[in-house]
Write a structure and sequence with these properties.
With 124 residues, the protein is of the alpha+beta class. The chain is built from three helices and seven strands; from the N terminus they run H-E-E-H-H-E-E-E-E-E.
Length: 124
């Protein structure tokens, strides 16, 4: 039976992709990110990585702190994994936009000219 790691490696047979060690993070894989001048890198969903950390016994605060220091904060070469924060952008009729992830929420307010006038962001 094939898993996501095998499928991705089959798509990139000439590239030695770097995955997060624990397979618990496989459910957080979004795909492979590429850009000019860089090797392809595995892209992970930020929220799902935090959820996986929490499933390993961490509180949300501990999971985010661990992520900041040990995961996104660890550069291991050109194929260091990439972490994507997905936003649900809801624009309201009152010139505010609300961005939500599972871990973070932010509200942005704009004036009539479209200039940002306030931002409120907090961990959930």
């Amino acid at each position: 039976m094939s898993n996501i790691r095998d499928e991705i490696q089959d798509m990139y047979p000439d590239v030695s992709l770097l995955f997060m060690t624990e397979e618990e993070f496989d459910s957080a894989i979004i795909g492979v990110a590429e850009r000019i001048g860089s090797e392809p890198a595995i892209a992970y969903d930020f929220d799902k990585v935090i959820e996986a950390n929490m499933k390993m016994g961490m509180t949300q605060e501990e999971a985010i702190e661990y992520f900041d220091y040990n995961q996104i904060g660890a550069y291991v070469g050109g194929q260091t994994p990439i972490f994507i924060t997905r936003f649900n952008n809801d624009t309201n009729n009152d010139n505010t936009s609300v961005y939500n992830t599972n871990s973070y929420s932010a509200t942005y307010a704009y004036d009539e000219n479209g200039n940002l006038v306030s931002k409120d962001g907090k961990l959930k």
